Amino acid sequence: MLILKKLIKKKPKFKIQHSKFNIMTAKTAALIGATGLIGSHLLKCLQDDDDFKTIRLLVRRPVPYNHPKIKVLVIDFADEAAFKAGIAGCEAVFCAVGTTNKKVKGNKAAYRKVDYDIPVNAARFCAETGCPHFLLVSSVGANSKGGNFYIKLKGEVEDRVKSISIPSVSIFRPSMLLGKRPESRPLETIAQVMMKPMSILFPSQYKPIAAEDVAKAMIGACKQDKPGFRVYHFREMKALQG
User: Fold this and answer.
1) What is the distance between the alpha carbons of residues 60 and 157, in angstroms, rounded to a whole number?
2) Which candidate, 7, 97, 106, 236, has a CA 20 to 30 Å from the CA of 226?
3) If DSSP codes are grouped into helix, strand and coil, which group holds residue 12?
4) pLDDT at residue 200 above 90?
5) Containing H/E element for 170?
6) Rounded to whole angstroms, how far apart are CA atoms 161 and 143?
7) DSSP per residue over 73-93, as a string?
């Protein structure tokens, strides 16, 4: 009995070691522009990544996506209450929305409603709902003082987003995008063929980049969660790919 009591009181020789690594909580992310060239690659990356548990697709019309992670939210982006509700509770919002002159039939006001109003409101709702990270596809050369309508508009979006209080903002400025779009753009296809072999001659930030690479860079930046306002060009985007 005395021997048994000594054994019970005797402390074990081994020590329990606690892990030095932080376990990342799987995120809920919202994706705006899932049907576009970059957005479609983003959606696939998010689906395949275990660090993201729920993907909310904010879309204007029903889309045929069927995946256990995906929640499709059909909203009118002019309905601020619905838009804000779609973002509330997210840890990251990816915005890859954009239109073309052809789609809006040259209507600059309609163009602005998509390329300015949607990303700016998304950023505003991130701040209002406590979403810590907003990731936006912009364009190389974005400059609010530029003479070109597209470049000027992208610069205005960046300036406005920068003024909104969000812990982390990641801006991606690709040049020509490489990849197959769902809709036909013959001139862009020709330009891709011509420009790709010549890209070695371009300054790094103007080099064409695959849409899939931009998507992977956005995922990489999201996982890093670096605070502040950060802009990524070709070289930085390539470095971010996992």
Assistant:
1) 21
2) 97
3) coil
4) no
5) strand 168-172
6) 13
7) EE--TT-HHHHHHHHTT-SEE
Residue closest to 87 by CA, chosen among 162, 157, 173, 166: 166
Q: How far, CA to CA in Å, does 210 sit from each of 38, 60, 149, 158, 216?
A: 9, 26, 24, 22, 10
Q: Going by DSSP bridges, is the β-strand pair 168-172/228-232 parallel, antiparallel, or unpaired? A: parallel
Domain extents in the chain: 25-240
CATH numeric code, 25-240: 3.40.50.720
Strand duo 52-59 + 70-74: pairing: parallel
Closest by CA position to 171, among listed 207, 99, 221: 221
- Using pLDDT thresholds of 50, 70 and 90, give the confidence band for residue 180: confident
SS3 state of residue 168:
strand
